[in-house]
Every structure is written in structure tokens, then in C-alpha cells.
Specification:
Length: 415
């Protein structure tokens, strides 16, 4: 029996998008070990998969890029965190691989140490990426600020300039990573974009038309559509009794100080017909007041079961929530709060699946208007859902992983 080790960064938003692939591997007869957040043991093992915790030292290094005041500072904070985690990831994998002896190592793109370890050891390996691809292409805007796709020479100049500034802003972190790579006998990476292009296969958890078309996809990239696994849960009966239109307001499961989205949405929708459901996730639900009995405020609800019952989803722009809604043809209104969220917001707008309200323009009046426009975007959301279905998902991932084994077996026979 072949063994696959899946190694994630300490975030559910990076574990859950790969659970469908893990289950497909399990069903195909592979032994699957997932090294991830310690408190996800029960959920992982309930699916017939093996769980190992990532090192405490890694979980202690919390991503705080939301503290940045603009995309460049957020990038630097994220890169610094990933760099500080990398030595711990290498030690973590040294111990696990010695014990588990995987035939394939599948690492999170944000685990810089995971990539170093795989390359140093000459392992059979692949990456997975649960956020939008940041590499350059003439058809794709510079990554980070949520720019619209370039239109003509001025748009391309804008993108070239921002990429150059980003390269300068992050060169300290890249230099630190290259020093670590040199310590392990690896060549330096020429640019920050090369962080995402190291593996022979990358399982990319989105697809067109949500993702932009490109003139050329990087070698080894496979756009599979989103991974939408979620812990089991049923839609509460009371949801079906709520009047339409139904609006779900959802913020991040990671601390981002994004409560202003909830407060503004409650104000924007206070006099609107229909009903509102708020899930506060990392925030305390008692911090928010329901203006009337058609508003329900909960800490958590099973989004996989609740989202299909909605008419629109208002969200901070996490890839999981945005793609979950679009995958069932529910349009979104995105108020990005940080990280890659401006990118998912702009893509939702460009593909016709929803609307985009920049954080610095958030007012009750603007949000109300954007929610109204989003409700008219169901046809675009349904086009995205069809694109996701056609991308192949976990079934396609399994095919590509098995091709890795087949190609290496063929090469060894020739040798």
C-alpha cells in the first residue's frame, strides 16, 4: 500500500480544501496521513485518515498580516511569518518522514520549509495551493491590491510597477529564505514568484471562470476547482422558516478584526425585507445586536448546508466562503479585509458572480447597494458553478497523482 503524507500550514482554510483529495486517495487504496492542526485530530480520524499534529512551535507563530495597513505591508507580515515557521517545518518533517516513510509528500504552498525538505531529500512530492496564483501573466493583474484585469498599456504598466515594488518590499524575506535553502544545499530562488513554482505538480484549488484566463499556465499546474469538504452538519430547521430574500453575513474563522462587516451589514439591511443570518466565527456573537426578529446571530453554522439556502452571501472574501457560495450558484458581496481577499473579491466581480466593496469604502449605503446588485448576479454565479464542476476536482487530482507514480516507474524502467 502506498502512503501519502499531506502537510499543511496551521489553518483550517488550508486543511479543508484538501480533504476531498485525501478521501479520494483513501478510497483508491492509499494510506493517507495528514499532518495539520492538533485540534483537527477528531475530524481527520473520523474520515478514516491518520492524523499527526504539526509542531507546537509552528502553531505558536500566528499569521498577523491583517495588521498591515496596505497590501505591501500585509505581504511582508505574511512572508515573515512563513519564513519564521520554515526551520520548524523542516524539523517536523524530518521526524514524520522517518517514521511514516511516505511514497508521496504533498505540501501546502505556504510551508516554505516543506518545499525545502522535499527538494533536499529528493522525495516524490507535489504542492497544493488554496488561494489565487500570484505569478505574472499579461492577462492577469498584479497580485495583492485587487486590481481589475489590465486594459491596454496603462494597465500593464501599473502591474509591472506594482510587481517591481513588491519584489523590492519582500527582498529581505526572500534573502532569508535563500540563506535557509543554502544551508540545506539548495539553489536560491530568483524571485518571490518562484515560491509558487517549485513542485513538479501543483494542485490548484480554483478554476475558470472564477480564476482569470492566462496566456500560459505554469508547468505542472492543475486548476481543479475548489475543495469544498466541510465537517458534517445539517441546516437548522429554522433557516427554512426565514423569509426571502435570505442574506448570510460571514466573517473569517481566523482573527482579522473584521467585525465592521457585520455591523455595517446589520445597519444596511435593518429596513430591508427578508432575513439575515450572521456567523461571527472568531468574533464573540454577543458583541452584535439583532435589530429585529428576522436577524439570527450565531457563532458557527454548517456553511456547507446553509449556503445553498441563501440568496446572497456577504463575506470578508476568504476563498473558502466565496467559492463555496459560487459553487452552488449563490452570488456573493465581498468586503475584503486583508490577505488574498481583495483578489477573490475582484474575481467574483469580474466573473459576474457578485460585487466588491473595498474595505476603505465600506458604508451602510454602499453595502446595501452592492447587496442589491449581487442578488442580480445569480446567472454569473451559476456559470462559475458549472466551471468548477468541469474542472475535475478530487477525481482529477487522483489521476494526476497516479500519473506521477506511473511516470517515475516508466523512467526507472528506461534507466
Amino acid at each position: 500500500m502506498r502512503t501519502v503524507l499531506i502537510y499543511t500550514s496551521p489553518a483550517r482554510g488550508h486543511l479543508y480544501p484538501m480533504m476531498d483529495v485525501a478521501l479520494a486517495l483513501r478510497d483508491a487504496g492509499y494510506r493517507v496521513v495528514i499532518q495539520t492542526l492538533a485540534d483537527e485530530r477528531e475530524r481527520v480520524e473520523a474520515q478514516g485518515l491518520e492524523h499527526r499534529p504539526i509542531a507546537d512551535a509552528i502553531e505558536a507563530l500566528v499569521l498577523e498580516d491583517f495588521r498591515g495597513t496596505h497590501p505591501l505591508s500585509q505581504f511582508k507580515l505574511a512572508f515573515d511569518c512563513w519564513l519564521r515557521r520554515a526551520p520548524h517545518e523542516i524539523e517536523d518533517l524530518e521526524a514524520t518522514v522517518a517514521e511514516v516513510k511516505p511514497d508521496l509528500l504533498l505540501v501546502d504552498v505556504n510551508t516554505w520549509g516543506g518545499a525545502i525538505f522535499a527538494q533536499r531529500e529528493g522525495l516524490r512530492w507535489a504542492m497544493f495551493m488554496p488561494f489565487c496564483l500570484p505569478t505574472s501573466d499579461p492577462m492577469v493583474p498584479a497580485f495583492g491590491p485587487g486590481f481589475a484585469p489590465p486594459a491596454g498599456a496603462l494597465g500593464r504598466l501599473r502591474d509591472t510597477a506594482f510587481r517591481a515594488v513588491l519584489s523590492v518590499a519582500t527582498r529581505g524575506e526572500l534573502a532569508g529564505l535563500n540563506r535557509l535553502r543554502a544551508e540545506h544545499g539548495l539553489a536560491p530562488l530568483p524571485s518571490y514568484e518562484d515560491l509558487f513554482l517549485q513542485a513538479p505538480l501543483t494542485l490548484y484549488r480554483t478554476a475558470e471562470p472564477f480564476e482569470y484566463a492566462r496566456t500560459r499556465w505554469p508547468e505542472g499546474f492543475a486548476a481543479l476547482g475548489p475543495g469544498l469538504w466541510a465537517p458534517p452538519g445539517e441546516c437548522p430547521d429554522w433557516v427554512h422558516d426565514l423569509p426571502r430574500p435570505r442574506v448570510l453575513v460571514s466573517v473569517s474563522t481566523e482573527i482579522q478584526n473584521d467585525g465592521a462587516i457585520i455591523e455595517t451589514a446589520l445597519a444596511a439591511l435593518a429596513d430591508e425585507p427578508g432575513s439575515v443570518i450572521v456567523t461571527t466565527s472568531a468574533l464573540d456573537p454577543s458583541s452584535f445586536d439583532a435589530p429585529h426578529d428576522r436577524v439570527r446571530i450565531e457563532k458557527y453554522l454548517p456553511h456547507a448546508a446553509v449556503v445553498p439556502e441563501m440568496d446572497v452571501v456577504v463575506t470578508h472574501g476568504g476563498m473558502g466562503t466565496v467559492q463555496r457560495a459560487l459553487a452552488v450558484g449563490v452570488p456573493v458581496c465581498v468586503v475584503p479585509w486583508g490577505r488574498d481577499q481583495s483578489e477573490s473579491a475582484r474575481r467574483a466581480e469580474v466573473c459576474g458572480g457578485g460585487t466588491f466593496v473595498p474595505r476603505n469604502q465600506l458604508t451602510a449605503a454602499r453595502l446595501k447597494a452592492a447587496i442589491h446588485r449581487a442578488r442580480e448576479s445569480r446567472e454569473g454565479a451559476e456559470r462559475v458553478a458549472e466551471g468548477f464542476r468541469e474542472a475535475g476536482g478530487a477525481k482529477r487530482a487522483l489521476e494526476l497523482i497516479e500519473q506521477l507514480f506511473s511516470a517515475e516507474a516508466a523512467a526507472s524502467r528506461v534507466a
